[in-house]
Design goal:
This protein is an all-alpha fold. The chain is built from 16 helices and three strands. Bound molecules: carboxymethyl coenzyme *A (CMC).
Length: about 375
């Protein structure tokens, strides 16, 4: 069989999908054909989740039921909370999230992936419970009590409430909801592909999501948002930006939050996130990180824009979360509580015409080597 080897499978289609589309040259992102900017302006995260999973915007009755089903499944079994209490409090929240999601699969019957009804309830549970797990871990690791979800609060409002036990300002909930919309889905990225490979074995959805969480964690993928805020804090002042960028470029280091495999212009999500930063700072006061970030975008652009390298989604998202007082190591788990809807949409799509992922390799090793007994090596 002839092989065109593409490292990182760059540009190799791995599936046909009707869930989302990216135009990397024009900087466009659509979910089920609808531009993300329009969803941010007019939709909510939960409605967008429905759109991604089921392929159409819900009717008012469908949305009410979806909302009710999600609200009804936000709570965690006490054994899941007990399990998290046994994890080391210095551990990374992504590891705690992955462990808890994998454990969910032992409590719920997710194995019968041929049952549409079963799959619906698995999707409801995963969308509903991930925020509760992340918030519970954020509390437990500081020795604080877990705050149970409140049924009268919306999805984003409830998550922010579960972190602090105080109701967030309405603008924060609205901005956070838009952040969730922007992170919900992004075609064939590393974590989605990981989830699809697991799904193709007909493993249960909790395992699919746990494996996708593992891939999202890395600094080249979802972990970049943490590193961006760390970088901005290290730079410290606007005056230090130029020397920092010059040094990075000289050493051929990558600037976190810049560059994308598909976008060759500024990521449309970064454009919306920048607007969200400005809305947030108007009401809640400025962020010194934002000033540094804007200068960094300008200075880095002088060398990198010509290579098609611009800010990506991770560049401005951490600044929003930082302003809301969310711990830096929770940024990637926040990404996961949103991206779970994209992972689940691909899982359901994969099951419809499943074929086990089993790629090929180009063997580059030896043949016919003799076995040397241990006492002669
Ligand atoms: N800073 C400086 N130079 C860069 C950067 C960057 N962030 N990204 C790419 N380049 C350069 C790279 O050095 C190389 O230059 P040359 O051709 O001269 O050797 C060229 O651009 C191609 O880089 P690549 O790493 O081969 O390209 P890729 O398509 O594999 O990279 C990427 C995509 C996202 C891994 C990369 O841009 C990167 O590492 N960015 C920093 C990490 C980051 O922000 N990740 C979040 C990605 S978006 C959200 C998500 O997927 O979760």
């Amino acid at each position: 069989m002839p092989h065109d080897f593409m490292p990182g499978l760059a540009g190799v289609p791995a599936a046909k999908s009707a869930i989302s589309d990216v135009d990397g040259d024009r900087g466009l992102l659509e979910y089920r054909g609808i531009r993300v900017e329009e969803l941010c302006d007019r939709s909510s995260y939960l409605e967008t989740t429905y759109l991604l999973l089921f392929g159409r915007l819900p009717s008012p009755q469908q949305l009410a039921k979806w909302n009710e089903d999600v609200i009804g499944h936000r709570r965690l079994k006490y054994m899941i909370v007990d399990l998290m209490k046994c994890l080391p409090d210095q551990g990374h929240p992504m590891d705690a999230l992955q462990a808890a999601v994998a454990a969910l699969g032992m409590f719920y019957p997710g194995r019968h992936v041929k049952s549409e009804d079963n799959n619906y309830w698995s999707a409801v549970r995963l969308v509903a419970k991930l925020p509760t797990i992340v918030a519970a871990w954020a509390r437990l690791r500081h020795g604080d009590e877990v705050i149970v979800p409140r049924d009268d609060l919306g999805f984003s409002e409830n998550f922010l409430y579960m972190l602090t036990e105080s109701e967030p300002p309405p603008l924060w909930s609205a901005v956070f909801d838009d952040c969730l919309i922007l992170h919900a889905e992004h075609t064939m990225n590393a974590s989605t592909f990981t989830g699809m490979v697991t799904a193709s074995t007909l493993a249960d959805p909790y395992t699919v999501v746990a494996s996708a969480i593992g891939a999202l964690k890395g600094p080249l993928h979802g972990g970049a948002n943490e590193e961006v805020v760390q970088m901005l804090r290290d730079i410290g002042t606007v005056e230090r930006v130029r020397s920092y960028v010059d040094e990075k470029i000289r050493r051929k280091d990558k600037l976190m939050g810049f560059g994308h495999r598909v976008y060759k212009v500024k990521d449309p999500r970064a454009v919306v996130l920048q607007r969200l930063c400005e809305r947030l700072f108007q009401e809640s006061g400025p962020s010194p990180l934002y000033e540094i970030a804007m200068k960094l975008e300008q200075v880095a652009g002088e060398s990198l824009n010509a290579k098609g390298i611009y800010p990506n989604v991770d560049f401005y998202s951490g600044i929003v979360y930082d302003k809301m007082g969310i711990d830096i190591d929770l940024f990637t788990p926040v990404f996961a509580i949103s991206r779970v809807s994209g992972w689940l949409a691909h899982w359901l799509e994969q099951l419809r015409e499943n074929k086990l992922f089993r790629p090929d390799q180009i063997y580059a090793g030896d043949h016919n080597r003799p076995y040397i007994p241990i006492d002669q090596r």
